Amino acid sequence: MHFIYGVPVLFVFVTLFSDFMPRIFGAYADQRVLLIVSLIALIALGFLRLKDRRTATSILADLWPFIPLVFSFFLSALQHLLDPFYLVEPGFYALYFAAFGVVGYLIRAEGRTHEAAQTLSVVAGVGCFFYAAITIMVYLFAITDDFSRLNQIIPWGFVNIRYWSHIATWVVPLLPLTLLIVPWKDHRLWRLAVEFTAAIWWWILVLSSSRGSMVGLLSGFTVVWLCFGRSALPWVKLSAKFAGYGVIVWMLLSVVIPSLVFDNIYIPGIKGDASGRLALWEEAWMMSVQQFPFGMGPQSWLTHDILTETYQASPKFGHPHNMYLMWAAEYGWVSVAGLIVLCGVAWKRFWPSISAARAGLGTKVMPMVAFTASVTAAMVHAGVSAVFIAPGSMLVGLLVLAVFWALIRPESLAHAVIERSRLSIAGGYVFVLLFVLAGVFWFFEVLRYRQAMADDLVYYQEELSLGNLPRFWLHGNYPRD
């Protein structure tokens, strides 16, 4: 199954090492295009594999929680048919949530959940190891070149420092898993590599003052501790140990060595304020109630007449730094309600696993613990940042969410759906063909949007000089009023 092996390698390495990849439109845009093509391909291939193995009823029983959320995005698009590029972002979010549901269902239906969890944790760990090793090289070059502002060059490889922190939120909880479930977990060299990787990534978290990641990771840590209790102890102990290693490395690389090399050192502090987000959240809230409960339309954050004085006087961004308020503002509270339905069903399916783990009945608890922590951290982080906008974050998140959806599915349900399809093979092919044709039409609309943005870029840079406001594309302040 390509998702278990090939796709994680592609997504993780394209996200972490975009500086070394050939570029077509630029790293940000290329990651977006890869994500878009992957969504169409994964959904189509997923249904092709299932069409003659599962009934439509059994597939619907697993995927129905996604329908309200997916429908809410398309509903917003249908209400704004005259808006420019009205179909681009609604289609994107609809396909994104549908894709991780379909792939997660397929992983579980084929009985490869543990294999998928193990593979993704190993791929993430290996990718993070090479990123950490190159980071040490960057650090040494900075020290030898007498450059003390380390936070300006580390983390490297991302157009915005916060896009790295999104990746950290997804993958840091998976690192302990590489010492808990892989067959070679007791090999000394492997353990040293994982501990080195975790220490460097935690050091970068502290160095970059990634508050959203830290709050998210702490939330994930707390949730799994409360839910799984003593069953989560192996993962909890390793996570705490890795964080401790990171603090030690931060003291060594950010304080001790720079103090010996430079006359003056710069140690960025972790801010205690909201960094101007409150004005953005107030604006998004006011937008969400203007056309309650359907929102002001796709990308209306970029095009609407400003509603609050605080946002009028504050710096402008391509999004309100809160995914839930952004969806409420643009797609309405119906989209948030759809997300709540999805989360509620996930919790209902998740609870039996918690009960079994706390009773000591779970045989493979650690993947559930790690992926629960990762998803929790990302969902919390999304409340203060663009976790579901940055394409790199969404590439890695698609992997984690799909495996998590597979993990929480009850065993009894998985066995119950193994039966012959009542749909004809021809009917299945017709459905997939129609979906692919619609996907190709939407993809060309996405490319038309990119070209319009590129045509506008010269005017935007020379006449307005407002700087890039990343959204769907890196030049995200387009279209605008």
Report on this model:
- The chain starts with 5 loop residues before the first helix and ends in a 17-residue tail after the last helix.
- It has one domain.
- The radius of gyration is 23 Å and the shape is globular.
- Helix content is 67%, strand content 0%.
- It is built from 19 helices and no strands.
- The chain is an all-alpha fold and 481 residues long.
- Helix 2 runs antiparallel to helix 19.
In short:
The chain is mostly helical and 481 residues long. It has 19 helices and no strands.
How many domains comprise the coordinates?
1
Beta-strand portion reads under 5%
Described by strand count, sense and barrel closure, the largest sheet is: none
Spans of at least 5 consecutive residues with low confidence: 412-423
Distance between the termini: 46 Å
The DSSP helix count reads 19
Query: How many strand segments?
Result: 0
Q: What overall form do the CA principal axes indicate? A: globular
Oligomer status: single chain
What structural category characterises the helix and strand content? mainly alpha
Helix fraction bin: 55-70%
From N to C, what is the helix and strand string? HHHHHHHHHHHHHHHHHHH
Q: What would you report as the Rg, rounded to the nearest angstrom?
A: 23 Å
Q: Average pLDDT across residues?
A: 89
